[in-house]
Design goal:
- The protein has two domains: 191 residues, NAD(P)-binding Rossmann-like Domain (Rossmann fold, 3-Layer(aba) Sandwich), CATH 3.40.50; 124 residues, UDP-galactose 4-epimerase, domain 1, CATH 3.90.25.
- Helices cover 37% and strands 16% of the residues.
- It has twelve helices and 15 strands.
- It is globular, with a radius of gyration of 21 Å.
- About 4% of the residues have low confidence.
């Protein structure tokens, strides 16, 4: 099977590349070639900027893929461009969306693929919802923009055979997942320095962290399967942890005691709106992902990496690259500002 990953060297796509190669698939990456040190042996590199439609068309000219997986579509116009670029080039276009698109909080914490898509707090999520609607041809109220089988309206993009995949909080080596950033060492650095750590709410909301290698099994298992066309799937771990537990597990792996300070998410959003958006619209809300659908389509999907094991792997990765064990200035500035306000307010009460 011939697979094209748009990107291919990122947090999730690297693990998906490894899984596809393990299965013996012929793997192509389309990217600008700026991270050649992260390219896997055996991968065919197509150099192009996906935002340059003509350059991308030239890069894929004469090729046909069983599946194209788009990791880098963040706005509806990105998907609209892809529909034009990959029309006739692939049998399956896979859009990587997000679980933060689901409406939260809802009447039940259990989330299935039928849970409505709505996020008034976070623009990132709203744009991903818009991406899905371009692909599915739905209006904002969920209706089809035009009857199935009708001729596309003038100026409307053509349709692609699609599958939608929604990851939640997914991490790999070199990531220390937290509420205020995950891709660097910043949270571990604060813990090692003995500094206070902000945890939203009372720390008891339930959250799911998924190791990229587990996500990859689910994603790659969907590729080339015609039964997945027109379907949406979320792919997450089944492990559910409180935010306090997540921070305790990281601290235990570091050999320290975390100094957790609980601050209401609403207050965080008021003082730091850019941080609050991802909390009120996603991380600070308890969710229980129902993975029965991905299991029906990919029987081999069975997450194996616990967060305790995953964080040990991440810290071992940083041990191999000690120069990357650095503070996160933006995280520190935001946490210190929130803590200063909170401790001051508590002192005046």
């Amino acid at each position: 099977m011939k697979i094209l990953f748009i990107g291919g060297t990122g947090n999730i796509s690297s693990a998906c590349t490894d899984e596809a190669l393990r299965r013996g698939y012929e793997v192509f990456h389309l990217n600008r070639g700026t991270h050649t040190d992260k390219e896997r042996p055996g991968v065919h590199l197509l150099r192009a900027d996906i935002r340059d439609a003509e350059a991308t068309k030239a890069a894929v000219r004469g090729l046909h893929f069983d599946s194209v997986v788009q990791f880098l579509a963040f706005r509806p116009e990105h998907v609209a461009a892809d529909i034009d670029i990959f029309d006739g080039v692939t049998d399956q276009y896979v859009l990587i969306s997000t679980c933060s698109a689901y409406k939260k909080p809802s009447l039940t914490p259990t989330v299935t693929e039928a849970t409505p898509l709505e996020n008034p707090f976070w623009e990132y999520s709203r744009l991903k919802i818009a991406c899905e609607r371009v692909l599915t041809g739905q209006t904002e109220d969920g209706r089809l923009a035009e009857p199935r089988g009708a001729q596309p309206q003038a100026g409307r993009a053509r349709a692609l055979p699609y599958t939608i995949v929604r990851p939640s909080h997914t991490y790999d080596d070199g990531w220390i997942p937290g509420c205020f950033g995950s891709s660097g060492y910043g949270l571990a650095w604060r813990m090692l320095q003995g500094l206070d750590i902000v945890v939203p709410g009372d720390g008891q909301s339930l959250w799911t962290l998924t190791h990229a290698s587990d996500f990859a099994v689910g994603l790659v298992g969907l590729l080339g399967n015609p039964d997945t066309l027109g379907e949406a799937f979320h792919i997450t771990s089944d492990e559910r942890l409180t935010w306090d537990a997540i921070h305790m597990i990281i601290a235990q792996a570091l050999g320290v005691q975390p100094r957790i300070v609980h601050i209401p998410s609403d207050l965080i959003a008021k003082l730091r709106p850019e941080r609050g958006a991802g909390l009120l619209g996603d991380k600070a809300v308890s969710v229980l992902f129902d993975n029965s659908k991905i299991r029906r389509f990919v029987p081999g999907f069975a997450p194996r990496v616990s967060f305790a094991e995953g964080i040990r792997r991440s810290l071992a990765w940083f041990d191999a690259y000690p120069e990357r064990k650095v503070a996160d200035p933006a995280m520190n500035a935001d946490m210190d500002a929130l803590l200063g306000f909170w401790h001051g307010a508590m002192g005046r009460m």
